[in-house]
């Protein structure tokens, strides 16, 4: 069991590698089993094989290595991330996901809610030539106003939530008072190296939402630490 320290994204958000199965050698041996061969130490020849597999989209050997993460992120990040669970089946025609996702639930958890509230210098304008993504940053004065407005909105929801809990409302209903998209949630994500690489390749792109980019970069760091050769095929 590999339990790394949390890598913080901001004041609250983090990614932590909980466990990892396999190494670059795992990929090599999964590919070589077709010829009843096995490597016991990674060689230059093995490294060339990994590069060949990745360059030619021979993806199945990358599914034999797994990573498990604990993530604490705003709901808007979690729901973008969830798309990779919905589309994670590696076998066409099946609806079975090959990834695991278990998330904390406010049906049961009543720990103090935590919210993502951008700092005044972090508010972004909508882009001029696209219906999604972000443009330039707002000036500090405008950002300060937006931060104050969001803080007031969150505090109002928290007060209503706390009042509902104190009056005996079931947590699964009391949570309706909490502003949703900025609320931090915690989950475990277990995925094959192929799935993790796919997630990173899409979410470290310059046009990905910055908040999820920040998380993808940390996931990428863990990949490089544990799969240095395979990680060469993750775009920076």
UniProtKB/TrEMBL annotation:
One of its GO terms (molecular function) is NADPH binding. Its EC number is 2.1.1.148. It comes from the Bacteria. GO terms for biological process: dTMP biosynthetic process. NCBIfam families: thyX. This is FAD-dependent thymidylate synthase.
């Amino acid at each position: 069991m590999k339990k790394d320290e949390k890598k913080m994204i901001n004041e609250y958000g983090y990614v932590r590698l909980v466990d990892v199965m396999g190494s670059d050698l795992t990929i090599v041996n999964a590919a070589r089993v077709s010829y009843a061969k096995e490597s016991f130490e990674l060689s230059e020849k093995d490294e060339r094989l990994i590069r060949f597999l990745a360059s030619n989209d021979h993806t199945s050997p990358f599914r034999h290595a797994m990573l498990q993460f604990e993530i604490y992120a705003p709901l808007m990040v979690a729901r973008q991330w969830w798309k990779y669970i919905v589309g994670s089946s590696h076998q066409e025609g099946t609806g079975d996901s090959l990834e695991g996702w278990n998330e904390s639930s406010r049906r049961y958890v009543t720990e103090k809610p935590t919210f993502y509230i951008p700092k005044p210098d972090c508010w972004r304008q909508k882009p001029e030539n696209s219906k999604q993504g972000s443009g330039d940053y707002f000036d500090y004065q405008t950002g300060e106003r937006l931060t104050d407005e969001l803080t007031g909105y969150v505090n109002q929801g928290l007060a209503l939530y706390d009042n509902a809990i104190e009056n005996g409302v079931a947590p699964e209903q009391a949570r309706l008072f909490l502003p949703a998209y900025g609320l931090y949630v915690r989950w475990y994500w277990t995925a094959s190296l192929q799935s993790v690489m796919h997630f990173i390749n899409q979410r470290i792109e310059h046009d990905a939402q910055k908040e999820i980019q920040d998380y993808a970069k940390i996931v990428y760091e863990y990949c490089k630490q544990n799969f240095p050769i395979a990680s060469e095929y993750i775009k920076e």
